[in-house]
């Protein structure tokens, strides 16, 4: 146990030292406008789909070193129309999809800083109003998250950001209390915004 604690303490000291050794602050905040494009795959036979839309997004990143960072991606609950290719308009629901990603930032380029990321997404479905209450969905979803993006520095603090993420979001659908199958949203999110390094 003592050896484990010493190893954890040494790792924390090394990462903290690396962050402090940077000329920049380890904290970065980005604000983006993101277009959500859903894959709309389901096994219910109803041809379910939610509408695509543009949503606001805020993320907070902490750089453990110039190359390695963790990013928490946040937004507000998003309302979607749910339609069926068989039955037409079914109603609405909301989803809140925060994600946590580990990133690698490439620092060898001049004038731009590309990065890749991978992590986990948790989605909470709420305010489900489908078929007047006759249909419902499972409220919680866990899945993977993949990311590629680039920061283009404008000055020491500000940067232009372009970011693409693939989230794996799915839920079970029930009609009249009977499981009807699964519905996968699995959206691609393309975002453009600004970043600020403290």
Strands, total number: 15
What's the total helix number? 1
The CATH topology annotation reads as: Porin
Q: C-alpha Rg, in Å?
A: 20 Å
Mean pLDDT: 90
Which outline best applies? elongated
The sequence of SSEs as H and E is HEEEEEEEEEEEEEEE
State the end-to-end CA separation. Answer: 37 Å
Number of domains: 1
CATH architecture group name: Beta Barrel
Low-confidence stretches: 1-22
How much helical structure, as a percent, in the residues?
10-25%
What profile does the largest beta sheet have? 8 strands, antiparallel, barrel
Overall structural class, as computed from helix and strand content, comes to mainly beta
Strand content: over 45%
Strand order of the largest sheet: 1-4-5-8-9-11-12-15
Looking at the chains present, what oligomeric state does this protein adopt?
single chain
Classified by CATH, the class is Mainly Beta
Pfam families: OmpW (PF03922)
Subcellular location: Cell outer membrane
Signal peptide: 1-21
Keywords: Signal
Structure commentary:
- The chain has 198 residues and is mostly beta strands.
- It has a single domain, classed as Porin.
- Helices cover 10% and strands 63% of the residues.
- The protein is built from one helix and 15 strands, in the order αβββββββββββββββ.
- The strands form two sheets. The chain has an eight-stranded antiparallel barrel with strand order 1-4-5-8-9-11-12-15. A four-stranded antiparallel sheet has the order 2-14-13-10, with no helix packed on it.
- The longest helix is centred in the N-terminal third of the chain and has 20 residues.
- The protein is elongated and about 60 Å long.
- The two termini are 37 Å apart.
- The N terminus is likely disordered.
- Its main location: membrane.
- This is Outer membrane beta-barrel protein.
- It is found in: Cell outer membrane.
- Keywords: Signal.
């Amino acid at each position: 146990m003592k050896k484990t604690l010493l190893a954890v303490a040494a790792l924390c000291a090394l990462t903290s030292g690396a962050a402090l050794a940077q000329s920049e602050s380890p904290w970065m905040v980005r604000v983006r406008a993101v277009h959500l494009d859903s894959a709309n795959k389901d096994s219910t036979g109803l041809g379910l789909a939610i509408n695509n839309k543009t949503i606001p997004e805020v993320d907070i990143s902490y750089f453990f070193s110039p190359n390695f960072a963790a990013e928490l991606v946040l937004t507000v609950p998003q309302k979607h129309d749910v339609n069926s290719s068989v039955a037409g308009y079914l109603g609405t629901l909301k989803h809140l999809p925060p994600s946590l990603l580990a990133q690698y930032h490439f620092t060898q380029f001049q004038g731009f800083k590309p990065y890749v990321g991978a992590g986990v997404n948790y989605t909470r479905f709420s305010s489900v109003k489908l078929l007047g209450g006759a249909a419902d969905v499972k409220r919680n979803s866990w899945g993977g998250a993949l990311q590629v993006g680039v920061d283009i520095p404008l000055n020491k603090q500000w940067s232009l950001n372009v970011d693409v993420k693939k989230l794996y979001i799915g839920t079970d659908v029930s009609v009249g209390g009977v499981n009807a199958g699964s519905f996968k949203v699995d959206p691609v999110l393309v975002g453009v915004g600004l970043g600020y390094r403290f």
